[in-house]
Structures are given as C-alpha cells and as structure tokens.
Amino acid sequence: MRFDETYSGKVFIKSHPNYEESKAVLYGMPMDWTVSYRPGSRFGPNKIREVSIGLEEYSPYLDRELEDVKFFDAGDIPLPFGNPEKSLLEIETYVHTLLKDNKIPMGMGGEHLVSLPVMKAVASKYDDLAIIHFDAHTDLRENYEGEEYSHSTPIRKIADHIGPKNVYSFGIRSGMKEEFEWAKEQGMHLYKFEVLEPLKQVLPTLEGRPVYITIDMDVLDPAHAPGTGTVDAGGITSRELLASIHAIAASGVNVVGFDLVELAPVYDHSDQTANTASKLIREMILGWVK
C-alpha cells in the first residue's frame, strides 16, 4: 500500500517490495508548517532514504541483517502544504489503517508535531500505552503564541490524552519553567540532560507494556547532529543514543510503533546528520521489530 503505486524513486535500503507480507511499515511525514525557528524538516524522510544506500545491511550491535525483517517503505504521506490540522488528520487516518492491518508504524519526520496523531492512533489500539520520548525540548506547551498545534505542544497533548504518568521524557535540557513545573506536578517522568542511565532504570518498570517511542534528532548534541531545526548545545552523543536503542531492544517492553523526527538536511551539507538518522533507523528496525 504505497501512496503512489507508480512510484519508482528512493526507498530505504532493503525494504520489502510487498506490503501484505511485511510486519512493519516505514512512511514519511514531510511537514514543517509550525516550526518556530528553522524550516526544512519536510525534506528529512527522502534524505534518510537517499543516504541509506551507504549503510551496511548488517548490524554488528544486534547481529541481525535488514533481510531478517520484512518492512515496507510506503513513501511519504501526501500532506496539504501549510495546513497543520488537515495534515494531522491525514497522518492519523493512515496510521489507523496500518494498525487495522496489524502493521507496526515506523514514521520519519518532519517536525515533531507529526508524532501526535500517530501516538493518538496507537493509543486507541493499546489501552495501557506508554510513551518514551527522546528530545532536547520538553514540548509541553499548551500553545505557541496562540497556536494550539505547534511543534512545541505534542508531548503535552499526548500526556493530556493518555495521562502524564504514562509519558517518559529523556535528555531534556530546554523548555519554559512552567513546563518543567507542570511535568513535576502531574507526575510525568521527565529526566533532564541524561538518557541512558535513567532509561535503564525505567525499562524494567515497563516490561510487558505496549510502548511507543519518539526520537527528536535534537536530543543529540549539535556536534553530532547539526542538521536539525532547533539545535541545542549540551546534548548526548550518537553513541549514547545507539546504546539507548539497544537497551530498549534487550528489554521486555513491547515496542508497538516509533518515529524519528526533526532532520532538516539543508543545515548539514556534509549529510552527517542524515547518515546518523539513517543508521538509527536501521538499529530501530532491527532491534524493535521482532
């Protein structure tokens, strides 16, 4: 089920040609309609596909090859330019279709707001859903300069939807004081600055639960990922983020969907960030799609 059945362009390396036979579906959400600083993340999904050709199919971390996992690259969801609400509806509708077909949704952004409709769709299928969120920013605002739908609001909205105690944020190092206070008052699990060690402590408490994971590329320090819309100094290394992906893979959590967002390739002419994103997605597929 590709969006354009005549499509003959780039797909992620070793994606399976058949939707029906695939366990998981990779898709792009090329939207950056609400960004407050630097646009360009709508070009992220195709750049990830483009550079994936340089990846080895084998992961020495996990001792698995992409051939071991049947996943289908559906291409990019055709989103109406400049219309956030209709775009979110299109994304949610598509993900509902994937879930109805018992596929694992694997999204590529796009700004972080695109994760909201995916998480809502997944939450409608799994009653006890937990969210694991890697990011430099809290994303807990109720609105941004009067706009309800913003890349600054998705985690607040999903927390309101499934309950703040079911949301676990890691690597957070930026946000308004009120956002941090709200998280503390509501019992949300927000871990500042660090990722791997607090994640290792949390994972045993989530064993057996359905978990959706969203990774914002700006959780990485700009030295490791300059190609993102809102860079923020003091982040983690790519090695630590890879180790976190592998820790989740080795845990007892049931990963029911995931995404990687906020790659803006125009700000990194070396493609360093895109290559990192592509490798992260390889590890996520091999580690989380059993």
UniProtKB/TrEMBL annotation:
NCBIfam families: agmatinase. This is Agmatinase. GO terms for molecular function: agmatinase activity; metal ion binding. One of its GO terms (biological process) is putrescine biosynthetic process from arginine, via agmatine. Its EC number is 3.5.3.11. Pfam families: Arginase. Binds 2 manganese ions per subunit. Belongs to the arginase family. Agmatinase subfamily. Catalyzes the formation of putrescine from agmatine. Its cofactor is Mn(2+). It catalyses: agmatine + H2O = urea + putrescine. The gene is speB. Pathway: Amine and polyamine biosynthesis; putrescine biosynthesis via agmatine pathway; putrescine from agmatine: step 1/1. CDD domains: Agmatinase-like_2. Keywords: Hydrolase, Manganese, Metal-binding, Polyamine biosynthesis, Putrescine biosynthesis, Spermidine biosynthesis. Mn(2+) binds at H112, D135, H137, D139, D216, D218. It comes from Planococcus maritimus.
